[in-house]
Amino acid sequence: MWVRAELKARARLVLGHNYWDGVGTSVVTGLIAGIPVMMVSYLFVIFDIILLSATYYGGAEVGDTAVLITSHSELLMTTLLILVVIVELGLIMAAIILFTLPLTAGLMHYFNRAAGLRGSFGDIFYAFREGRYVKVTGAMAWRLLFTWLWTLLFYVPGIVKGIAYSMVPFILSDNPGIGARRALRLSVEMTQGHKWRIFVLMLSFLGWILLSMCTFNIGLLFLYPYLYATYAELYATLRAQALQKGITSVEELCLLSR
Predict the structure, then answer these.
(1) What's the number of domains the chain is made of?
(2) How far apart are CA 188 and CA 183, in angstroms?
(3) Which of 5, 162, 170, 199 might form a disulfide with 235, Cβ 3.0–4.6 angstroms?
């Protein structure tokens, strides 16, 4: 059985060798992942302003005919605004799936490797190389979808399933070709019997998170490496236990090639 304090101590030991690398990779990943979402959002904000302006100035005429035209124009503009919002949400979700999710997998790959003091900045692009993109992105997308669906049943089931699927990015780090179904199943099996302890581990960072929010979230940039490194240590522990129990194998996780 793992101990929370030991995981954090090991994470701090790892960060003692590459803390600023961890900060840099976290910041760069966040910036790159946020650019497509920001571009889509700004583009549609401009489009919304144009539509609203057209709606407003469309009522400049006077007379009964003008009122009728204005009424139809407002209905048309309202319909267009609704369609714009739907398209905007769809494009934002597409940007998240196509860019944010694989970059998140790459960031976890960096911290997974950093636990063995082998991490490098290029690891954040792990999912984009050597034909990994489709399988890694697909598995991360299924993880996001299933977590969201469970969240619809109120937050508690969503939190439980979020914890159950939390090892998926690290599993994909070891074997990007393992497949979405197996990655999700293996994460569930790894976290079986550990969910409450993982939840408490998450809560142990709450104080630091709240304190970081008081610095306009700037402090989060320095907290994230500690958080991710701790999760990497948790994965290493759960992976060792899974190997011991026969839940997975060194061949399945591609550990023999390391």
Answers:
(1) 1
(2) 9
(3) 170
